Amino acid sequence: MEDSHAPETEGLRFRPATRDVFDDVVEMLGPKRRPDAQACWCLTYRLGTREAATLDAHDRRERVFDLCGRTPAPGVLAYAGAEVVGWAGVAPRSEVADLRDETVFPRIDDIEPWSIFCLRTRAGHRRQGIGRQLIDGAVEFARAHGGEVIEAYPLDTAEKVDAIHTYPGLRSMFEEAGFDKVADTRSRVGGVPRIVMRRWPG
């Protein structure tokens, strides 16, 4: 990463999503046609579905701007040259509201893991392995901020999935990045079950 906390990997450069690159955060997370249109902004899991639903487009943008002013930043951006091409939402699990429901996402033990809960690749750059590289960038970012055990909650399928449903990532991507399955979940995205995977120190 440019000014700390993330690596350069296979031609991609990673950096935290801070306010000085907020335009790039908007490019990855904001609405694409009208600035007043609704978009997730990677807040639904972080805040919880109920709270996120109360925010209009302006509120969501302002909430993400606020998060980008905090340490640690709310995620990692990937760059190919000067162009932003990817985003990974990553935070301590306790800060991700939707992961607190242990009946859906079981807690494995008393360890406080960091969680990778959203991966996005910019349109026009998909199917180039960027999502897989984003995992490495997110892991290094988490470890630079004290995270030892890293969790993810990918789709447990080898079948083709509509791009709109792939934000949790796929099991195969995380296996390639050194993660192991540790539990099933009660969560489904696009009808596909999700699992809990972990990457341990070392």
Description:
By secondary structure, this protein is of the alpha+beta class. It has one domain: Gcn5-related N-acetyltransferase (GNAT) (Aminopeptidase, 3-Layer(aba) Sandwich). It is built from six helices and eight strands. An eight-stranded mixed sheet has the order 1-2-3-4-5-6-8-7, sandwiched between helices. The longest helix has 15 residues, at 130-144. The chain is globular. This is Acetyltransferase (GNAT) family protein. Keywords: Transferase. One of its GO terms (molecular function) is acyltransferase activity, transferring groups other than amino-acyl groups. Residues 12-202 form the N-acetyltransferase domain.
SSE diagram, text form:
Layout: E1 8-9, E2 12-16, H1 22-29, H2 44-47, H3 49-53, H4 57-68, E3 75-80, E4 83-92, E5 114-121, H5 130-144, E6 150-152, H6 171-176, E7 180-189, E8 192-199
Parallel strand pairs: 5-6
Antiparallel strand pairs: 1-2, 2-3, 3-4, 4-5, 6-8, 7-8
Instruction: Assign the structural class, choosing from mainly alpha, mainly beta, alpha/beta, alpha+beta, or little secondary structure.
Output: alpha+beta
The Cα radius of gyration reads 16 Å
CATH architecture: 3-Layer(aba) Sandwich
Q: Helices and strands, in N-to-C order? A: EEHHHHEEEHEHEE
Mean pLDDT across every amino acid position:
93
**Strand residue content:** 25-35%
Unreliable parts: 1-9
The tally of beta strands, per DSSP, is 8
What is the makeup of the main sheet? 8 strands, mixed
The CATH class assignment is: Alpha Beta
Shape: globular
Query: CATH superfamily membership, which one?
Result: Gcn5-related N-acetyltransferase (GNAT)
Strands in their spatial order, largest beta sheet: 1-2-3-4-5-6-8-7
In helices, the fraction of residues equals 10-25%
